[in-house]
Amino acid sequence: MSTEPEFKERLSNSYLFGSNAPYVEELYESYLEDPASVPDQWRTYFDQLQHLPATDGNEQTRDQAHAPIIESFAQRAKANAFLVHAAAPDLTVASKQVSVQSLIAAYRSLGARVAQLDPLKRQDRPQIPELDPAFYGLTEADLDQVYSATNTYFTKADTMTLRDMLKALRDTYCQSIGAEFMYISDPAAKRWIQERLEAGGVPAFPAQRKRNILQQLTEAEGLERFLHTKYVGQKRFSLEGGESFIASMDEVVNHASESGVQEVIVGMAHRGRLNMLVNIMGKMPGDLFAEFEGKHPDGLTDGDVKYHNGFSSDLSARGGPVHLSLAFNPSHLEIVNPVVEGSTRARQDRRGDEDGSQVLPVLVHGDAAFAGQGVVMETLNLAQTRGYGTGGTLHIVINNQIGFTTSDPRDTRSTLYCTDVVKMIEAPVFHVNGDDPEAVVYVTQLALDYRQKFRHDVVVDIVCFRKLGHNEQDTPALTQPLMYKSIGKHPGTRKLYADKLVAQNVLTEEEAEQMVKDYRLVMEDGKRTIEPVLTDHKSKYATDWTPFLDAKWTDQADTAVPLTELTRIGEKLTTVPEGFTVHPLVNRLLNDRRAMARGELPLDWGMGEHLAFATLVASGYPIRITGQDSGRGTFTHRHAVLHDQKRERWNDGTYIPLQNVSPNQGSFTVIDSVLSEEAVLGFEYGYASAEPNTLTIWEAQFGDFVNGAQVVIDQFIASGEAKWGRYCGLTMMLPHGYEGQGPEHSSARIERFLQLCADNNIQVVQPTNGAQIFHLLRRQMIRPFRKPLVIMTPKSLLRNKDAGVPLSQLAEGQFQPVIGEVDASIDPAGVTRVLACSGKVYYDLVNARKEAQRNDVAIIRVEQLYPFAHKAFETELRKYGNAKEVVWVQDEPQNQGPWFYIQHHLYENMTAGQKLGYAGRPASSSPAVGYLAKHQEQQRQLLEQAFSAKHKGFTLTK
C-alpha cells in the first residue's frame, strides 16, 4: 500500500497527473460519454485502448470492464513524450486513478437513475453496473487508498480516499436530488453545476427558514382540505401530494428578486393553479370562494372556469418588489408556453432588458403533458433564437407519476424521463423528491442561479404524487389500485416535514398543529393569505391599457398621409448606403418603388405595405413582423431586408430601410422565424397581449399553414376577450387565393375564421389593392381599441397591374370595407344583376365581364367580411334598383369560403323581389384540386355561372 507522500511524488511523474491531470482526466471522461467530443488524435488513442485482448482471449468493448483498458493506458503513459520527469511512475496507481475518474464520470452521468426520488417508494431502483467500483476493477482494498480529487469539488484538498469519494458521490447524485447535465456541450456550464452540487449540496437551513417552508406546506395543504370539505365534488385539480411546489414558487419569487428580477411571468395548466393564486399571488380566498359558488365579475361576455383564470399582483420579496403575472390558460395544457414567452419578450423589449435579467418566464408543467404535447418542443426550439429568446426559462414539472387518471405511465411516453425533451436544447434537469421540501427549495435556487448566469433554460422536476383523481370527481383506484393503496398510506408531505422539524427541535408538535388551525381560520374569514401584497405599487414599465378600454367599434379612422410625406418616406425606403450592392432584381424593384412614391407608377401591394409600415414607425409606433419568410416575403414581394451581394448573409451584410426612416422613429423588427406555426403564433399573441402600442404581425408562409396553429386561434385569438377580458391587437397575414397550386397552397380557411366571429371579437378582411392594405394597417394602430386582425393577403395580386392604384389614394380617404362599382361605363339603371365577391376573384370577374360585354352586371367588393359593413353594402346595392339578382361569387368550394357565413348578411340588405344565388366551385372535401387543368376548368365554369343569362341555383327570394 502506497503512503500519501509516495503517491504525491508519483503524481508529479506522469502526464496523467500533476498539472496535466485535470486535462487528461476530462478528456478521458468526455470520451467515455461521447468519442466524437475529443480531438481526433486523442480519440484514436483511446479507441486503441478499447480493443485490447482480455484474459480469456476475447476483445474488450466499451460496455465491459475498463481494467484492461486502464492498464494499457498506464503502460503507454510510461513511454509518453509528455512525461515531466524521467522517473517511471507506478503503473498500478496510474490505472487505479483512471478507474476512479471513470467512476466519477459514471455518477455524474447516471447517478440520477438510482436517486431516491419517489415519495411513494413503489419501484425498486435499478442496478447500474457502471456505479459499482468493481466495474472498473476497483476492490474493497482500494477504498482506503488516496486518489487525486483535482477534477472534483468535494474537498479543498488535492486528494481523497476512494471511500470518502464514493460516499460524496452517492450523497450528491443519488439521494433526494437526481441531476442530469453531462450532455451539456459548454464545459463552463458543466463545471459550474458540478461545483455547486459537489461543493455545497443542500444547505443547512436556519430554523426560521425551516419554519417558513413548513408554513408554505401548511398553507398548500390547508387550502386544498378546506376546499375539499366546503365544495364537495367540485373540480379544482388539487395540489395534494405536490405541496412542495408552493415552497418552490415562493423561492422563485424571493430568490429571483435577489438577482435583479423585477417581473415573473408564469404559465401553468390546472393542477395547483388555485393554490398558486391564493398562497403565492395573494388572491383573496373570498373571491375564489365566490367563483366556486357561481358568481362572476361584471364586464365579461362569457367568462371561464376558475382554474383557467389568470391574475397579477405586486409582491414584496427579499430583493425588492416583484410583479408576478399568471397567464390565462385554456384546457389545451402546454399551449400557454409560447404565449408566456411572447409576453415576457414584450416586457423585456419595453424595458430594454436585452439579456433577460429583469423579466423571468416560468413554465409549470404536468409530467404527461410535458412529454406529450408537441408545442413544448416547438417552444423549446425558440429559446436560443434571436427573435424569440427570453434569456432562459425556468421550467417546473409537477410530476404526479401518472399523467391523467386512466393512463398507465408506461403508455405516456417513450423516454426514460418526462423531461427528456429538454435535452434537445441541452437544458439541465434537476429531479427532486417532493417529500424533501428543503431539497426542492435548494434546487430551485440552483436552477435560478444557472438561468441568471448562463441565460439558458433549466428544469426542476418535482417528483411527487396526486392524492385525488385527475379531477375531484374521479375515482383513480378504479384504474390505479396499487398506486392509490400507497397514496392512501402516505401521511402527507406537510406531516413528514413537521415530524422532521419536531425531531430536530426546530418547533414543537403543538406549534406545528397550531399552524394548521391558524390557516383554517384565515380560510373561514376569506382573508388574504399573503402579506404584504403591494396594492399601491406602480412600475414605470407597466402598460397602460386605459385608452383601449370600453372603446366602441368603428370602421372609421384618419389614416391618410400627405403626398409630400409619402414621397419623402418613399425616397428613404428606396435608398441604400453607399457601397452597398443589392441584387439586380431588387435594384429594379427599388427603382419601381421610387417611381411609385413620386406618383409616376401605380402603387402595388408591396409598396402600399411598406409605406404603411414607414409612416407608422415615423409616428413612433414600433412594428414587429415575424414569419418563415417575412424578411423577403414568400412571394418575394416585400424585401424589407436587403442583402449586400458582396457579403454573406451570416456576416450581417444586411440593410433594413424601414429602420432608417426618421430620427427618433419607432423600432422596426422583422424576423424570419423558425419553421413553426403553433409556437410562433402563440408567441406573437403573447407579445401583442402585453404590448398594445406595437403593431405585431405574424405572417404565414402560405395561409393554409395556419391550420397548425388552430388551438391558438380558437382558445386565445378569437375568444380571449370574451373569456378573460384580454385585449389583443395581433395582426395575422395569411396568403390566400386560388392560383392552381393545389390543396395545401390555396386556402387560409376563411370559413373557419368566420365561424368564430361574434361580439366584434376579430376582424376578417381581404383587401384587393395597395391602398387598402396601407389604410388597413394604419387603421389597426390609430383606432383607440385593440382587436385581432386577420388579413387574407393575395398572391397573384401582388404583381397584378390591374390592382395598381394611384399614390393619391394614400393621401386621401381611408380603408373601405366595401368597394362599389368603379367602372364609369356601367349604368346603374341598366344593371339587372349584382355580383358580390371578395378577393382576387374580383379581377377575374372584371375581365370576364369586359370580354362578354355584360354592362348589365355590376360588381361589389366586400373587403371586410367581419364585422360586416351593412350600411356600406346597402348603400352600394341600393344604386341598382332594377337588379333582380344578387349573386355571391367566390373562388373557394361551396361548402368553404365565406358563402355560408355571408348569405344572411347579403339577404338582410336585399330588397323585396330580389333573388340570392351562388357562383363558385362545387362542394369539396379538399380545399382545392391538385391538377392545373382541372383548376382552370373550374375557374372557367364559375365565371360562366356568374354571367350566365339565366343563373341557376338561386337559394333565397327576399
From TrEMBL:
One of its GO terms (biological process) is tricarboxylic acid cycle. InterPro entries: 2-oxogl_dehyd_N, 2oxoglutarate_DH_E1, DH_E1, KGD_C_sf, ODO-1/KGD_C, THDP-binding, Transketolase-like_Pyr-bd. Its cofactor is thiamine diphosphate. The keyword Oxidoreductase applies. SUPFAM superfamilies: Thiamin diphosphate-binding fold (THDP-binding). One of its GO terms (cellular component) is oxoglutarate dehydrogenase complex. GO terms for molecular function: oxoglutarate dehydrogenase (succinyl-transferring) activity; thiamine pyrophosphate binding. CDD domains: TPP_E1_OGDC_like. It catalyses: N(6)-[(R)-lipoyl]-L-lysyl-[protein] + 2-oxoglutarate + H(+) = N(6)-[(R)-S(8)-succinyldihydrolipoyl]-L-lysyl-[protein] + CO2. Keywords: Glycolysis, Oxidoreductase, Thiamine pyrophosphate. Its EC number is 1.2.4.2. Residues 603-800 form the Transketolase-like pyrimidine-binding domain. Homodimer. Part of the 2-oxoglutarate dehydrogenase (OGDH) complex composed of E1 (2-oxoglutarate dehydrogenase), E2 (dihydrolipoamide succinyltransferase) and E3 (dihydrolipoamide dehydrogenase); the complex contains multiple copies of the three enzymatic components (E1, E2 and E3). PANTHER family: 2-OXOADIPATE DEHYDROGENASE COMPLEX COMPONENT E1, 2-OXOGLUTARATE DEHYDROGENASE. Belongs to the alpha-ketoglutarate dehydrogenase family. E1 component of the 2-oxoglutarate dehydrogenase (OGDH) complex which catalyzes the decarboxylation of 2-oxoglutarate, the first step in the conversion of 2-oxoglutarate to succinyl-CoA and CO(2). This is 2-oxoglutarate dehydrogenase E1 component.
